[in-house]
Amino acid sequence: xxxxxxxxxxxxxxxxxxxxxxxxxxxxxxxxxxxxxxxxxxxxxxxxxxxxxxxxxxxxxxxxxxxxxxxxxxxxxxxxxxxxxxxxxxxxxxxxxxxxxxxxxxxxxxxxxxxxxxxxxxxxxxxxxxxxxxxxxxxxxxxxxxxxxxxxxxxxxxxxxxxxxxxxxxxxxxxxxxxxxxxxxxxxxxxxxxxxxxxxxxxxxxxxxxxxxxxxxxxxxxxxxxxxxxxxxxxxxxxxxxxxxxxxxxxxxxxxxxxxxxxxxxxxxxxxxxxxxxxxxxxxxxxxxxxxxxxxxxxxxxxxxxxxxxxxxxxxxxxxxxxxxxxxxxxxxxxxxxxxxxxxxxxxxxxxxxxxxxxxxxxxxxxxxxxxxxxxxxxxxxxxxxxxxxxxxxxxxxxxxxxxxxxxxxxxxxxxxxxxxxxxxxxxxxxxxxxxxxxxxxxxxxxxxxxxxxxxxxxxxxxxxxxxxxxxxxxxxxxxxxxxxxxxxxxxxxxxxxxxxxxxxxxxxxxxxxxxxxxxxxxxxxxxxxxxxxxxxxxxxxxxxxxxxxxxxxxxxxxxxxxxxxxxxxxxxxxxxxxxxxxxx
Length: 585
Ligand SMILES: [Zn+2]
Ligand SMILES: [Zn+2]
Description:
By secondary structure, this protein is of the alpha+beta class. It contains 19 helices and 15 strands. Among the domains are: 381-442, Dna Ligase, domain 1 (2-Layer Sandwich), CATH 3.30.1490; 453-584, no CATH class. Helices cover 52% and strands 11% of the residues. The protein has a six-stranded antiparallel beta sheet. Strands 6-5-7-8 form a four-stranded antiparallel beta sheet. The two termini are 44 Å apart. Bound molecules: zinc ion (2 copies). One zinc ion binds at residues 529, 531-532, 534, 552, 554-555, 557.
């Protein structure tokens, strides 16, 4: 890069000075906001009072000065509190609200993002550049200035999965442009200031949750906090609109231009903006941080009407695309065409998923034998009975199932049917040892550790769409961390055969129709977690996808039997392709 100099227009000191000016400006604006709101509201109240009290006149000079001084004082105090709070905890609140986490260098996609950040740090002359990732399949990005003054770029898993390397570079360049121009500092602070009231509402909500024990009446305990919540919502709404008016829509176009200076690839930026625009770009449930994003969360629904033009935080996407395409001497149609061609290429390069259903009958026979033996093994070890609250014996249970019983304590009365012994659980050395190991976060029973819950084959470490998982090579079962699922749903490396797609659709139909039961809905026997040795809980995968799967909450892992994860992937992919606003929840 020969002309590097003109892309790095600001020295460290210049940036600092610019930030100080922005802080001062926002502080004054916040003060003006409070002074006006408090002044107008209280004046309205006092003037109505004046209409009833003959002796009271609002504009009597002695009263008016005192009144102005009081409003000034209150506005100043509120400004200082709000401002300090925003500087102190604003950024961490935004990150927490967006569920952003640090990239994992072991993950191929995350590593590529980290490498691009490193390159950008060097070519832009920034002192540091942190990365965060939001675990969602939706496409978006933003930049922030952290508490320590270091800038950070945040991208979603969906963006990492959908953008090619040059497009990801273009996104990072766009966000870096915002950082260099000082937009990021200004916007982070504005959003932190607005978030103050959201934080207040959240803490009031939390208090309410704690104070109410009766879950059946979730709306009950609201009473005392309600007026405060309304007031806080009112202020946050006013503040948001006040600050949005200060933010120029032009900054996006300017950042796009600077990004092109940094990455030299206007078409890559145009393609990724178009992708984010047509995909689902929704992030979190808060509209407070909208000005920060690459594309607004509801990009698809924005019309080019005068009203939308006036109240939007972002310029129309078509205008941005046209500006970028012009730089490459191309037009918007060509941008769309490139995206379509790329998509086609990608679909062709997906690896075809292979299943046990394709394997030989001999192999399937052997597998069934293994599964049967695993079942027998578990039954052989199920030598424990436990007495429940009604005085009846539950069981026989394996040790891992015994200690996961909801009513189990060391005082629970249990029975060992093999040795025919009965007593409180703490009297049995096996149980004491198991509880001790559990306390030490060691696997409960070393014999089941790292063994496939379905067929008892030793599990192996494997990568599935760039995510580290544990896999059974015999039955194709997969142990996946709950935190990694959004990555798998976002990435499209595997192609699924038509028969499996059909099966997934039939499965969804079956969930809607209780009379139909496909084989995947079969009753599942108890199984033991290969990590901790406790019994898995059999639960629906999620509220949207009711497939029953084995979950281990202490380990935060899910055990998927063959085809289960793939069927979920097909269903999620179908759903995120469906461009209806209803799919956003
Ligand atoms: Zn297995
Ligand atoms: Zn576990």
